[in-house]
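Job type: complex structure
Entries:
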Amino acid sequence: MKNSQLYKGSLNTIIMKLLEENGKMYGYEITQKVKAITQGELNITEGALYPALHKLEAEGILDVEIEKVDNRMRKYYKLTEAGTKETVNRLAELEDFIRNMQSLVNPRPNLEF
Amino acid sequence: MKLTAQQIDQLFTFTRQHYVEWYDLQSELVDHLANAIESQWLENPKLTFDEALNAEFKKFGVFGFMDVVEKRQAVLDKKYNGLVWHHFKDFFGIPKIVLTLAMTFVLFTVIKLSDFKEWIFMGLFVALVVFSFYAMISNKKQRKKISKANQKKWLFEEIINHYGNLSVIATVPFNIMLQLLNNVPDLFTNNYWTVGMSFFLVLLSIAVFIIFKIIPRRTSEYLETTYPEYKLVNL
């Protein structure tokens, strides 16, 4: 992943947000979707994506579904009910973070003086 | 262009060669690689299967699939411990807690009234350890027979069969016991110590019973809830 240290903490939130919008998705689809949305700037590595998906599944945030597609099995991930609620919290948290970083990096001129 | 069934088989072999022994992980990685190869072909139809596969595999980094396997194992280890804990807590809810307390009380009374206190306690304790080892060995034998017939391995099944990291339960308490016997002279004459030791032995029996009996007996049930594909494959 590009600038992996910065993005690492947000990977789970990115996954949850995508699933919230798209219903169910499989691993490869997620990597492609992120690439498309960010116009190739953000590349989720496979070595980070699957561990994150498995962890979210174990935490009860995601549920899995299997479908037979072509001549292979496809594992779809989707948000559980608890996961949907958690997504709202995490997105709010991420938005706060973005806002705070923005004011730190780009402080607005202070007009009080 | 789509992958042929034969190429899918080749991908399964590829994951096996790269130390992914378990079907649950293999099938997910195979689908991932297959998708990736197919979309590479869309851009460059001249690529051979092997070239496309190697390019995709490189994206997993220098350790290949190891990261994915290790993290998956850690997640399932945790799930297993949670399962054991869930069963363990059962013995402290109504009505099983009556049984737990009754067993402690009976053991305490027997030790208190008997002239062979240490012998009774150590006898029961050794019986528990022997039972653990017996269960481990017979389970291993049985699995050997089955694994020849069925080639698909499931990671969570392996964790259940290796008892997570909890098989130490058969040996570690033994050392604690020896320490106590050597250092506490009134271990079986002081009432508090005796109650404590009785309770400890009951807790240990419950744990051994859960790990070596209850969970292995329900293995396929746990596999079905962990893997939606388990039923599909084992039809």
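Summary: The radius of gyration of chain A is 17 Å. The longest helix of chain A spans residues 81-105.
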